[in-house]
């Protein structure tokens, strides 16, 4: 027996399984708008612009076969880095059991390692603030956006003990020492563009002194919510982490019990036949490699393209890489209704070929409308036209354009919306594979992985930060 | 707007998200021992023996190349059924980052479809009873065991609307009508023998009249618990479903908060490098196909063998199939301690090649001791010798031998144990990849898939049914 151990049978330090004060503390931070401890919200865009000027950033297109460090493998033509690290572009062959497209092939990003997306929290003046980073990513429409405290690949964070090169990483790599984990789950990324990619989404509260850095600022949740009402300011990695904040239920009632909701989800996941295989990139049907990258003659979906990056505030000062460039702006929208005073979202159990397991909960509408132009009216995604119409009429409760992960996607713009619905637009008994879910229910599912997809998490972040109140 | 819809803004029927009366009702059923509404516990073995006599059952070994309906594919030698249904035996190549074995190949069972394991519940005399089936499976040591109400493959249950051939399936295929779902989650099966297999584990309560069938009996949880103290009476499918009963926490305290537990699990899942691919069966290194099946010259792990089955109470009267036959009896044991009066189990975040995602929580010890005989002492599984020693001394709090899924495994015997530990045997700060988890915490994780592995669920079923009280 070690000296430090309690004697057998002695009471050990038990703790409540749940931190009951946390929802109220998060709500207080979400209510703190206009002004944080360190700066006003309206000072943030100027600070971001100043950080953009302080660093040399340049991104220019480069043909795939001239990307430094990247090449097509001789057997299969996959696009890989010579180090074997980062990611590769491979082929994917999918067969699904529903929808107008049941068999297809496509390029896909393959990156089996799990990265960390972490936001550090700390109380100032009794209000939780979150340490946000001004970070450049080559695919962002405006290059520099507000990002998590840490975005680290596993190769980054496993290097931490030989001297951290990613600022503040120590708070996430070993949070047991001096920090308190508020949320930590593996969340999926885009199922149409990534093959089974997930990242750790972490929120850690610290009471330690945190040294300042000129690329970082502490903001309240309410301030981040204000910034989420602007286009292209809060990056995708920040949004997905913020969605996982455990806001909990003050009034724990909903249309369906949690068990009914999980049972419906389980049935949806179990009922689909989805067969997905990685295949050689050079044999992918319907796609061609040309001077401007790998794309489709019909111009749909996306193309794989290359960029050369020059930057001054990164671990390295310049690099080449492929990026996936979507064709057209996407739309991701939740229809919502109040039932008995409780706001509910109409979630869609959506099949995407890149998911680890068949389906995840997506917004009511999630697609790139242009891809559906040639499709018969009765096969278009349900609720799409209602959402586009509400947006055209300016009738959406919330509408903003955000961009997806700028380290992998080039100018991937999605218009995010909340649209109020009534019984006619979205009935209490929705079509199969749709279900009304309370905001609290959707939020609490983010404690676990592979329930709530990345687009739904962006919309959820609008709710956890108070950018949107339903 | 449809006629049945509530007017916009009218209060809809909200319900509490959780059924707060359920844990007490389950506890009442677990306390009901000796005698249920329909029969005494000590009458069950006799009833099972009578059902075994009532049906013609015969299982004999048949060489793999003479199994009716099965053949080796010409390209790769996978063992498949001519219908393309049921399952196939393929090859698996694994590379993992830890342990004495970091690269290996093996045969594996591939069955991508999700089946239903469902137990129907109903109150008699104010106590929940569970409808258990006397069911034959060819791999069971004693052929007939107590099974869930329904064990159905997807091909079974999707046929339900053309006239159900699986008794009581309608309660699970459309539980919304007339039933109340108590639990419904996708749970994994054996990660060493199956490639990413999972089944729906369902518990449904009904208030409807349920017609009797001579192969079925209603038992209380307490009665099932009494039968779990006997060897080879309650089958694996029943055990895994019973583990998912939401017993909840009367005293919601534990050594670690739920968030800390999930964070540790997330870190364990994220840190491993596991590469697993399906490969052709005929090229699997270290395995040979001979007259008695596919096995290893060193006699370790398992062999793939064939059987011919004759039965009278199945959908078909006879069939041939391959079965996986483990070499030697396994052991699965939880070390347990009370901290502050709350029982905790020492869970192991265990890598298995067949898991959908890297790791799941396993018992403290889970292995086939014989496979580890040639391994250096310092590389043997932690806690294995302590468990074997306690078992030899008769010092285990619980020890019984159960068999694994008799439809896929032949005589797959595992000795299941609970062994009390102290600080010396199992310290408060256990080795990496081990963690103390309260019984309630482990039980509540079964609401979601891929947290608690199938061996841990057998041990958990001993706790939810009251077979074991810690």
TrEMBL record, chains A, B:
Residues 42-245, 259-463 form the dTDP-4-dehydro-6-deoxy-alpha-D-glucopyranose 2,3-dehydratase domain. It comes from the Bacteria. InterPro entries: EvaA-like, EvaA-like_sf. GO terms for molecular function: lyase activity. Pfam families: Hexose_dehydrat. Gene3D superfamilies: EvaA sugar 2,3-dehydratase subunit. This is NDP-hexose 2,3-dehydratase. It comes from Streptomyces fradiae ATCC 10745 = DSM 40063.
């Amino acid at each position: 027996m070690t000296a430090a151990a309690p004697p057998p049978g002695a009471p050990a330090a038990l703790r409540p399984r749940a931190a009951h004060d946390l929802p109220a503390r998060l709500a207080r931070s979400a209510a703190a708008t206009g002004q944080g401890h360190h700066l006003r919200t309206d000072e943030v865009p100027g600070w971001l612009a100043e950080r953009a000027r302080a660093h040399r950033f340049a991104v220019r297109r480069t043909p795939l076969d001239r990307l430094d460090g990247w090449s097509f493998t001789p057997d299969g033509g996959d696009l890989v880095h010579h180090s074997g690290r980062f990611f590769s572009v491979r082929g994917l062959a999918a067969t699904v059991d529903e929808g107008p497209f049941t068999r297809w092939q496509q390029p896909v990003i393959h990156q089996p390692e799990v990265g960390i997306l972490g936001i550090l929290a700390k109380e100032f003046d009794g209000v939780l603030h979150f340490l946000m980073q001004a970070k450049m990513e080559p695919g962002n429409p405006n290059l520099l956006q507000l990002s998590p405290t840490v975005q680290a690949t596993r190769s980054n964070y496993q290097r931490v003990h030989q001297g951290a090169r990613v600022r503040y990483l120590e708070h996430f790599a070993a949070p047991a020492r001096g920090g308190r984990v508020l949320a930590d789950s593996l969340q999926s990324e885009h199922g149409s563009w990534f093959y089974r990619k997930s990242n750790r989404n972490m929120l850690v509260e610290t009471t330690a002194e945190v040294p300042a850095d000129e690329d970082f600022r502490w903001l309240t949740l309410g301030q981040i919510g204000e910034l989420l009402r602007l286009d292209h300011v809060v990056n995708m990695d920040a949004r997905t982490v913020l969605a996982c904040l455990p806001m909990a239920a003050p009034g724990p009632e909903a249309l369906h019990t949690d068990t009914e909701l999980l049972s419906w989800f389980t049935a949806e996941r179990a009922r689909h036949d989805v067969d997905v295989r990685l295949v050689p990139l050079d044999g992918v049907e319907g796609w061609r490699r040309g001077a401007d990258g790998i794309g489709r003659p019909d111009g749909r979906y996306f193309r794989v393209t290359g960029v050369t990056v020059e930057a001054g505030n990164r671990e390295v000062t310049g690099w080449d890489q492929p990026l996936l460039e979507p064709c057209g702006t996407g739309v991701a929208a939740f229809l919502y209704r109040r039932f008995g005073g409780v706001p509910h979202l109409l979630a869609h159990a959506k099949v995407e070929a890149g998911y680890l397991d068949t389906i995840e909960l997506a917004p009511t509408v999630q697609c790139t409308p242009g891809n559906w132009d040639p499709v018969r009216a009765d096969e278009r995604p349900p609720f799409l036209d209602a959402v586009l119409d509400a947006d055209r009429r300016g009738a959406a409760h919330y509408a903003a354009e955000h961009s997806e992960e700028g380290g992998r996607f080039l100018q991937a713009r999605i218009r995010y919306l909340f649209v109020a619905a009534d019984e006619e637009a979205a009935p209490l008994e929705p079509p199969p594979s749709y279900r009304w879910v309370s905001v609290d229910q959707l939020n609490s599912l983010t404690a676990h992985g592979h329930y709530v997809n990345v687009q739904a998490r962006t919309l959820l972040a609008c709710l956890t930060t108070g950018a949107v109140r339903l």
